[in-house]
Amino acid sequence: MKRTISYKIKNESNGKSIEKMLKEHGYSKKVIAALKKAPNQILLNDTPAFTNLNVKVGDVLKVILVEDQPSPGIVPEEGELSIVYEDEDILVVNKPARLPVHPSINHRNGTLANRIAGYYHRQGIAYVFRCMNRLDRDTSGLVLLAKHMLSGAILSKCVKEGGLHREYRAVVCGKLPEKGTITAPIGRKPDSIIERMVDTYHGQRAVTHYQRIGYGGGHSYVSIQLETGRTHQIRVHMKH
């Protein structure tokens, strides 16, 4: 994957070092370190530059993000891929139910990651799999992926700081209250590495907010927002 980004230096950046400017534009320490190690990936007025150089009004700073090795262990595969949105920085895919997001001990192939690797492999593009939100195997919904290290850094920070809004929809047996919050710790079921259960004594903190959108036929249609992100949290809490 290759992405070239240009910045025309304006008054507010005059006299700043390249490194300081990059940090202000969301470049993490890890991304800046990677750029420093690679030749000719930071250009000031089309000339290779060190990050301690200062910029001035009218300069053009160009950053070339290059990754020529795809994610190890993710084999490109054919498969249907429902792309909702794509630009130079991100990819949004609608994941169907019963499809794991990424390879695991039990699912090394036949995952969304394998299909995305195949999508870019057919274009001759080396793609590093950076998934910003995870969905359980049996859950359908939108998956957001970064297409390069910078968008990955910016989105990761956004997720960490709570800037990414996620809403889930579910059909639940019975008539739930109009809205509510479930606070029940979640832990593993005994003798299982996959299944989860409410575990008051040993479970991890888990908080789910919900709002009933509709009701009919003995079932509630609800909108759900997770305050925490435990494995199978929605499924466990909605049964609780």
Provide an overview of this structure.
- The protein has 240 residues and is α+β, with helices and mostly antiparallel strands.
- It has five helices and 14 strands.
- The strands form four sheets. Strands 1-4-2-3 form a four-stranded antiparallel beta sheet, with no helix packed on it. The chain has a four-stranded antiparallel beta sheet with strand order 5-6-8-7.
- A hairpin with a 3-residue loop joins strand 5 and strand 6.
- The longest helix is centred in the middle third of the chain and has 12 residues.
- The chain is elongated, with a radius of gyration of 22 Å.
- It starts with a strand and ends with a helix.
- The mean pLDDT is 94.
Give the tags.
four-stranded antiparallel beta sheet; about 240 residues; about 30% strand; alpha+beta
SSE topology sketch:
Elements: E1 2-8, H1 18-24, H2 29-37, E2 42-44, E3 47-48, E4 60-66, E5 83-86, E6 90-95, H3 112-121, E7 130-131, E8 141-146, H4 149-160, E9 168-173, E10 179-183, E11 186-188, E12 196-198, E13 207-216, E14 219-226, H5 233-239
Antiparallel strand pairs: 1-4, 2-3, 2-4, 5-6, 6-8, 7-8, 9-14, 10-13, 11-12, 13-14
